[in-house]
Amino acid sequence: MSIIRIIAVGIAILLASSCNGQATDSETIETTISQSSERYAHYLGNAGVMISDGETKLLFDPLFEQNFHIYQKVPASLQAKMLAGEAPYDDVDVLLISHAHGDHFSADMVLAYMSANPLVKLVAPKQAVDKLAVAGLSKTDMTRVTAIDQQIADKPIIVQIGSIMIEAITIPHSGGQRFADVRNTVYRVHLQNQYQVIHLGDATIENPPFAKQQEFWDEQSNELLLTPYWLFKNPQRQANIDVHIRPHRSIGIHVPTALHELKKRYGSALDEVDLFTKPGEERDLNSIENEN
Fold first, then answer.
1. In terms of Cα–Cα distance, which of 148, 85, 86 is closest to 112?
2. CB-based burial label for 114 (10 Å; 0-12, 13-18, 19+)
3. Deepest in the core among 74, 135, 141, 236, taking most CB within 10 A?
4. Domains in the chain, please, with CATH?
5. DSSP per residue over the chain, as a string?
6. In DSSP terms, which residues pair with 226 in a beta bridge?
């Protein structure tokens, strides 16, 4: 392992161990399918997911420090493997950040990751890239960064990285006016054989922003949707998925660790929903089924 990677892994472990609620016991990490699957989704923590499709690998929101004592952190052992580029986190092509909140993004950890993995490209909203610049992003690493600078209802920004096409739109952050200044970037990534993955970040529960982007949703078949769990909580919120996006398959992310309490509050609304809750668990994506 190179000196840079050793330093980066050390940073990741120190950052992870300094955060309350961080899972460090390897026994808490479960893998539910073989990584020999050609196409699979691998859960990291909170809204963090790795998508693997043949020789293509994507990381969504994988490096963050905060959990606000509610959400699942990425275990320290898993973070260290990511920083070191160890399997299954080797040969990652693109790191995508939805927005610059502490439970989705850490400038220090992303800088360490980029230093340790010099071939990985980064796509992130300008607000996150600005924080990286303050934290010490080098001119060399900046050449690997695409900053998404757009407003709500703007047309998609298209980023081409090798054979990977990424479309970005901005959907408001959940929480209304309190987070009105946050640019929450939604990504649709085109993989092999017309397979599209959408990551909604912390998308609002409101309907109008989804309706205003109807042309975007209609352009593709939207095979897999990674959505915050709160869009499943009642029929009105579910309509943003069923009426507008119409994915073939949906998996809930950003799920509180106290899942039993969540189900008490919302009754049977989440009973039939596929949720990522345990770091390391996976879903085989080779078979497409409508799971909404």
1. 85
2. buried
3. 74
4. 3-284 (3.60.15.10)
5. --HHHHHHHHHHHHHHHTSTT----GGG----S-TTSSEEEEEEETTEEEEEETTEEEEES------TTTBPPPPHHHHHHHHHT-TTSSS--EEE-----TTT--HHHHHHHHHH-TT-EEEEEHHHHHHHHHHT--HHHHTTEEEE---TTPPPEEEEETTEEEEEEE-PBTTGGGGTT---EEEEEE-GGG-EEEE-TTB-S-SHHHHHTHHHHHTS---EEEEEGGGGSSHHHHHIIIIII--SEEEEES-BS-HHHHHHHHTTTTTT--B--STT-EEE-SS-----
6. 199, 251
Residue pair 193/286 in contact by the 8 Å Cβ criterion: no
Both tokens assigned to 51: 């998508």
- Residue of 117, 53, 52 lying closest to 79 (CA atoms): 117
Classify residue 106 as exposed, middle or buried by CB count within 10 Å of its CB (0-12, 13-18, 19+). Answer: buried
What is the CB-side half-sphere exposure of residue 61 using CA atoms within 13 A? Answer: 33
Q: Which of 120, 219, 276, 277 is nearest to 285 (CA)?
A: 276
The Cα 85–Cα 221 span in angstroms is 32
